[in-house]
Structure to design on (136 residues):
């Protein structure tokens, strides 16, 4: 039997506990379910910079809904491949902890006001909702 010192025992135990807790935390974070809500807007007047600016203004206000964990407001990138859809004017990408948080967002007064105040700007909206696990 190998003789161990108190110092070696404490160092080994401390390192092992850090490794275990780091691994557990990583696994919990990696397996966390998320809900993704991605909306594409086609403006009635796609060449109107004023209408686009107005919609962007509305989305900025809408991003204040507290249940939203992360938001990205975008416009079509300059990439050009046959599989890329670039006909939309603005995209609205949201991340929620779960479906329940997204449902709260849908009924939130800020969201309802956004729809009432800005829906006259768009002719078409497509929504893609998905669930999955959070990755790095």
């Amino acid at each position: 039997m190998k003789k161990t010192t108190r110092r070696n025992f404490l160092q080994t135990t401390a390192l092992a506990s850090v490794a275990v807790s780091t691994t557990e935390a990583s696994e919990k974070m990696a397996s966390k379910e998320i809900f993704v809500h991605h909306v594409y807007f086609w403006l009635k007047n796609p060449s109107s910079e004023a209408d686009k600016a107005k919609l962007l203004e509305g989305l900025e206000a809408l991003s204040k809904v507290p249940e939203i964990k992360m938001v990205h407001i975008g416009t079509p990138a300059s990439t050009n491949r046959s599989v890329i859809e670039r006909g939309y004017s603005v995209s609205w990408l949201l991340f929620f902890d779960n479906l329940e948080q997204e449902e709260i967002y849908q009924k939130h007064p800020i969201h309802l006001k956004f729809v009432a105040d800005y829906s006259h700007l768009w002719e078409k909206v497509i929504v893609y909702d998905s669930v999955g696990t959070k990755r790095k």
About this structure: The CA atoms of residues 23 and 116 lie 47 Å apart. Confidence is low (pLDDT under 50) at residues 18-22.
